[in-house]
């Protein structure tokens, strides 16, 4: 069994993974309430919270899992906030000494890349290798607060980045847009809630780079367009238009993501489509990607909602699914410097 630790930002998370049966336990402590009054994550507070939470969490886990069965410790080594990563890495080092097992560093983005396949493994662990090979090459869309990229997976589970954002990430655009509209942190989910009662066709917001064959994403112009529109409205008019503004703004984000993914599907020979990252929890995006997969006649592997945000289950799974590729990061004392990029 593998025990994984995730602390890249404001979630203290631990999970235990058994290759024979899947995720057998996961524990997450969210810091949203702590950072809400500051309008965003405060790194020093987040690091302190990780320090205070991991000890009690491990004690709780020891009551339900036989830690002597753990054969490897996995820990996020980047990208993320340096102080937060350090807390997780220190915890992993200490635990590896106590249990006398090796510790391996895992890239946080690799966790997101493979998270859509957690349910595939759970459905039939014994045939997982054959199952994932049958849907390769795979086109994945990773959408989070800090990253927006298209990537491919071949039948050897090697990752190739095909396109990424040239400025803001999609999640960043949603959160910043919500902030411009006066919504508290975290704004993305609140915008989605307001959008549910609005008309997504009411306002035409820009949808980034439009050149044919250019798969890159861009969301900075969308945010600027929203600011200009807000400046022209009175407070009363803004409140009246809020549902339509939120729906149209969200639609512009989703439309660009789907359009670029569609271009990649047209030009590549992909046998499956994937969706992961924090923004993958957005209902409108999930539905749009389901429709896109049906259009091209390929299966969609979308990460379970509980595995779209920062979680340790995806870290454990990524460590197991791609052990050969992680050998170069194996160390008794991993740090957060070598793993700041996906590939």
UniProtKB/TrEMBL annotation:
Pfam family, one: TsaD
Cofactor: Fe(2+)
Source organism: Rubellicoccus peritrichatus
Positions that bind substrate: 142-146, 175, 188, 192, 282
Cofactor note: Binds 1 Fe(2+) ion per subunit.
Enzyme class: transferase
Protein name (database record): tRNA N6-adenosine threonylcarbamoyltransferase
Chief localisation class: cytoplasm
């Amino acid at each position: 069994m593998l025990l994984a630790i995730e602390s890249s930002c404001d979630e203290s998370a631990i999970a235990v993974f058994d290759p024979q049966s899947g995720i057998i336990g996961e524990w997450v402590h969210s810091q949203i309430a702590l950072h809400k009054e500051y309008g965003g994550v405060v790194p020093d507070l987040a690091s302190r919270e990780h320090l205070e939470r991991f000890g009690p969490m491990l004690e709780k886990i020891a009551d339900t899992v036989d830690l002597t069965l753990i054969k490897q410790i996995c820990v996020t080594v980047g990208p993320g906030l340096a102080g937060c990563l350090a807390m997780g890495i220190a915890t992993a080092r200490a635990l590896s000494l106590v249990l006398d097992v090796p510790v391996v560093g895992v890239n946080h983005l690799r966790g997101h890349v493979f998270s859509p396949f957690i349910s595939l493994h759970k459905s039939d662990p014994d045939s997982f290798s054959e199952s994932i090979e049958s849907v390769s090459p795979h086109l994945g869309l990773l959408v989070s607060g800090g990253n927006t990229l298209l990537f491919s997976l071949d039948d050897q589970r090697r990752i190739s980045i095909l396109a990424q954002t040239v400025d803001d990430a999609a999640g960043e655009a949603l959160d910043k847009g919500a902030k411009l509209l006066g919504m508290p942190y975290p704004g993305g989910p609140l915008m989605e809630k307001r959008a549910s009662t609005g008309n997504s066709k009411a306002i035409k917001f820009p949808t980034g780079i439009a050149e044919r064959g250019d798969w890159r994403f861009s969301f900075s112009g969308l945010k600027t367009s929203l600011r200009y529109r807000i400046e022209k409205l009175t407070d009363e008019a803004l409140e009246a238009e809020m549902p339509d503004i939120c729906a149209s703004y969200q639609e512009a984000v989703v439309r660009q993501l789907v359009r670029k993914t569609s271009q990649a599907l047209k030009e590549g020979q992909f046998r499956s489509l994937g969706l992961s990252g924090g923004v993958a929890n957005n209902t409108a995006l999930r539905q749009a990607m389901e429709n896109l997969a049906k259009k091209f006649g390929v299966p969609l592997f979308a990460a379970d909602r509980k595995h779209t945000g920062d979680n340790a289950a995806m870290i454990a799974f990524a460590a197991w699914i791609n052990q050969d590729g992680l050998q170069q990061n194996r160390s008794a004392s991993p740090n957060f410097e070598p793993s700041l990029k996906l590939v």
